[in-house]
Design brief:
Largest interface: A-B, 49 and 49 residues
Oligomer: homodimer
CATH architecture of chain A: 4-Layer Sandwich
Radius of gyration of chain A: 20 Å
Largest sheet of chain A: 8 strands, mixed
Strand order of the largest sheet of chain A: 4-3-2-6-5-1-12-13
Order of helices and strands of chain A: HHEHHEEHEHHEEEEEHHHEEEE
CATH topology of chain A: Glutamine Phosphoribosylpyrophosphate, subunit 1, domain 1
Strand content of chain A: 15-25%
Shape of chain A: globular
Number of strands of chain A: 13
Number of domains of chain A: 1
Chain lengths: 366, 366
Amino acid sequence: MTKDKSRRKFLRDALGGVSAVALGAQLYSSVPAQNKVSRSHGTVRSAEPSIRFAIHGGAGTILRNQMSAAREKEYRDALTQALMIGYGILKKGGPGLDAVEATIRFMEDSPLFNAGKGAVFTSAGTNELDSSIMDGKTLKAGAVAGLKHIKNPISLARLVMEKSKHVMMVSDGAEAFAKEQGVELVPASYFYTEDRWKALQREKAAEEEKNKAPKEKKPLKAHASLPEHEYGTVGAVALDQGGNIAAGTSTGGISNKKWGRVGDSPIIGAGTYANNRTCGVSATGDGEYFIRSVVAHDLSALLEYKGLSLKEAADVVIEKVDKLGGKGGLITIDKDGHLAMSFSTSGMYRGHVGADGQPIIEIYKD
Amino acid sequence: MTKDKSRRKFLRDALGGVSAVALGAQLYSSVPAQNKVSRSHGTVRSAEPSIRFAIHGGAGTILRNQMSAAREKEYRDALTQALMIGYGILKKGGPGLDAVEATIRFMEDSPLFNAGKGAVFTSAGTNELDSSIMDGKTLKAGAVAGLKHIKNPISLARLVMEKSKHVMMVSDGAEAFAKEQGVELVPASYFYTEDRWKALQREKAAEEEKNKAPKEKKPLKAHASLPEHEYGTVGAVALDQGGNIAAGTSTGGISNKKWGRVGDSPIIGAGTYANNRTCGVSATGDGEYFIRSVVAHDLSALLEYKGLSLKEAADVVIEKVDKLGGKGGLITIDKDGHLAMSFSTSGMYRGHVGADGQPIIEIYKD
């Protein structure tokens, strides 16, 4: 299927699947939502302020021949809705931070993604959620990790950024802060989904099987290829009409995780980064490798200090992660409205809005 | 006092104050410990492998006229011992990671520094410790946060790096991992020190006083000037005989902290970073600003992508933090053996070993 056909098909699906109220007006806006203008050259200016919005719903082993049409439609519909929520905010002149937060909240509420409602289970059968958000204008940031009772971690990350003097809060302490801020805590059972629970049971069974087998004294190896269901981190990056960049990421981490493991999603500079001088980034994948590579900040530094194009920089950092042995991807938007999406996995759930104001949803590599 | 006089004075003090067994042999080694060789040029090579070691014990408002001679001696003695532990390991050909870990363990065990034994108290009267370590050769890293019963967080960070597939573990989960690894957990009372406890009481009293005063509706402001006792994070950076760089950092965070606050010390790229291609960094100060500035990785990127000298890069990143409103400092060593120590506070407890193999301990800016 060509990209064009794919987009038309998606539009049909999307309109069938989602509320016309939420979507219609935005999808068929007659004004081109943006004309890409290179702010850095500054000689050409569009009449319309340049806005840009992109999202991801996780990178991983997503194979076309293993995806049913119905399942694919579910993802495309959810991604479209998520995308158009944030894009609608930007189009009305709203701040990038609002677009990022609202879109990620929607994805957190969907059981399809490994964040919020759809979070994977820890080894102990609990859910531990991590998230972060960053404001490229002020370089303010908020991050939370190890949450067990917060419906929308992205909103708590934003509260940490805006209502505390801190950047990062973890575990019970972060939830105590949430309570003080009037955030409603949900019972742990809110995060139960049959799919994720079954995935945990499969992994535990496999683990037990492995433990029964004669032990080889191999050095501990990092998980080079996570199963598909372990991915599903969500993220969004926005460039608003004021030229401000925002980025956010939210995740349930990895299934069957132990020991209060925290990945790259709540780490500023690794899973999330935004800076009006350069770009916004949200990453997804083998979190450990993304932390070690300081992926999101490295991308920004390659633009600022080495003068790489956004696409080049995105590819370079994903290649660095790959060389260390990690897989994953990222979405990024620079100050001039360029967009890049780079990943080393067979697929990444992703979407952005084209120059014509219409959503483009993609899943596979090819 | 000139630097030379200061060093001689310090040597007298040091030898008076610390075990000759631990120190003597190393202090008066007749072989110059290192000749600085620019590896990047490669034409000149010293007969001695180039090693480098530096430490800090926190940056802050440290004023000469407020420091008693006895107190200053305590710090100088402890810094000297800490420094020579790691340097001794490097001199014998040991790995940088061992030097960093052993030195930081010593500082964690000292009540003088805000790490391990001397950690400040949280608002709840507990102690929550954070630490991280990174190996510049492999880019492997380990980080722990929110520990309440771990005597030496730096060693647990190293275990996370070497004995798990993860990079970061927090709170109870991290302590469960510690137990599995056979690390002895200490009772919370181990971390009680009178000084830190009194500091907490003073802050609580001040807080109460402030709450009684008529409330002004000011926007929340980050703590631009932490009192002296809130600093005291420790860190070390090593370049070993194999040309490998390692860095580590350990802290009790900020006194009277709430909500599971985590600062930059356990954040790879912010408080700690090491990369054999560039440099090793350990930072200390207003953690929130160091996270937002991704200080340690930014310094590395300025070397790698922009070609700044180590000193230039160190000054640039501290200036960036300053512009955001944060204070603090860092120590850094590059792959060619250059050393820089930059800080925006009135003092930073710090030490390194000179080209003649002798320790140089400094406290104040001037």
